[in-house]
Fold this sequence. Notes:
This protein has strands at about 5, 10, 20-25, 35-40, 45-50, 60, 70-75, 80-85, 90-100, 115, 120-125. The strands form two sheets. Strands 2, 4, 5, 6, 9, 10 and 11 form a seven-stranded mixed beta sheet that branches. It has a four-stranded antiparallel beta sheet with strand order 1-3-8-7, with no helix packed on it. The chain has about 130 residues and is mainly beta.
Amino acid sequence: xxxxxxxxxxxxxxxxxxxxxxxxxxxxxxxxxxxxxxxxxxxxxxxxxxxxxxxxxxxxxxxxxxxxxxxxxxxxxxxxxxxxxxxxxxxxxxxxxxxxxxxxxxxxxxxxxxxxxxxxxxxxxx
Length: 126
């Protein structure tokens, strides 16, 4: 079982950047595919990006391509999400998630992930 703790959120002006981190503990980090989701009030959790065990493969929601970059450090047991050119529409709680099983057809579904952090708030406003 793995525990996940997100950090790095905050308030930023439009056009700014943030790097979110998710620190894992409790199990071998490299056993897990990692992902980021985000959620706003009244909406379902939305897939942002995923990265496979060694970091060789990354996946993004179509609307996230170009401004978002996921990476991982299996020595530091941490996955990152770099967000550039932030827009007010990026305001959300960002969650880190982990799964030991990866499906090319289902990785965008929140139900595919077994472990979740508590989230970190990102607010983009002027």
